[in-house]
Amino acid sequence: MAPSTVYQVDEEKNMQTRRYAGCSDEQLMAYIQRGHEQAFEVLYDRYWHELYRFAWNVLRSEADAKDAVQEVFVSFWMRRDQIEITTTLAAYLHKAVHYKVLNSASRLLEGSRTHLPLSYEMANAFAMQIDPIALKELEDTLSRQMAKLPPAIENVLRMSVEEQLSTAEIARHLGLSEQTIKNQLTAARKRMRILCRDMVFSVLFFMFF
């Protein structure tokens, strides 16, 4: 393709992009449902940053946050002709990312990256999105459940979660082996897992209702 032809194509594309950029969300959605890729690109640019900020505030991971937002937009494009929006397009996208983030957070809660299925760091991230009173109730519930553990396990768990001490630091402080501390944390995690799953759904409830 000759340089002049390439320039002409690029200029036409830029003109179309500018035209779509002046559209309302409702107009963009109509174009997207008819398969206009540039309208979708404008929508993506319009909302990507704020959706990413929300996802990062909860997940505290650039890669996980980007993946969550990207998956929402990919699904949106693939299902564009099936989507029915009853509120606003912005609200629809935000709720989709909320659900995706909660799913990602739930997987993290089950993983080995935290000593507890729900860490205080994760709770602090959720605090930016939910009512402080609701979060305080969740934290109080967690603390009450921790108090039901055998005293030795509860002590180790609180040192890990509340004081943010490593396994080695707890072992030195208590004069126990690191393996003993690991075993106690594993036992605590198993005892707390069911409650913390319920707490994740409670967070979901307070975020959306």
Question: How is this structure best summarized?
Answer:
By secondary structure, this protein is mostly helical. It starts with a helix and ends with a helix. The chain has 2 domains: 9-110, Orthogonal Bundle (Rna Polymerase Sigma Factor, Chain: A), CATH 1.10.1740.10; 120-208, Arc Repressor Mutant, subunit A (Orthogonal Bundle), CATH 1.10.10.10.
Helices and strands in order, then pairings?
Layout lengths: L2 H19 L3 H9 L3 H23 L2 H17 L10 H22 L9 H8 L4 H15 L4 H11 L5 H8 L3 H31 L1
Helix pairs in contact: 1-3, 2-3, 3-4, 3-5, 4-5, 5-10, 7-10, 8-10, 9-10
Largest sheet: none
The dominant shape is elongated
List low-pLDDT spans: 2-9, 111-133, 204-209
Could you tell me the number of beta strands?
0
Q: What number of domains?
A: 2
Mean pLDDT: 75
CATH architecture of the largest domain: Orthogonal Bundle
If you compute it from the alpha carbons, what radius of gyration comes out, rounded to the nearest whole angstrom? Answer: 23 Å
CATH topology of the largest domain: Rna Polymerase Sigma Factor, Chain: A
DSSP helical segment count: 10
Strand content: under 5%
Walk me through the structure.
The chain is mainly α and 209 residues long. Helices cover 78% and strands 0% of the residues. The protein has two domains: 9-110, Rna Polymerase Sigma Factor, Chain: A; 120-208, Arc Repressor Mutant, subunit A (Orthogonal Bundle), CATH 1.10.10. It has helices at residues 3-21, 25-33, 37-59, 62-78, 89-110, 120-127, 132-146, 151-161, 167-174, 178-208. Pfam families: Sigma70_r2 (PF04542), Sigma70_r4_2 (PF08281). One of its GO terms (biological process) is DNA-templated transcription initiation. InterPro entries: RNA_pol_sigma-70-like, RNA_pol_sigma-70_dom, RNA_pol_sigma70_r2, RNA_pol_sigma70_r4_t2, RNA_pol_sigma_r2, RNA_pol_sigma_r3/r4-like, WH-like_DNA-bd_sf. This is RNA polymerase sigma-70 factor, ECF subfamily.
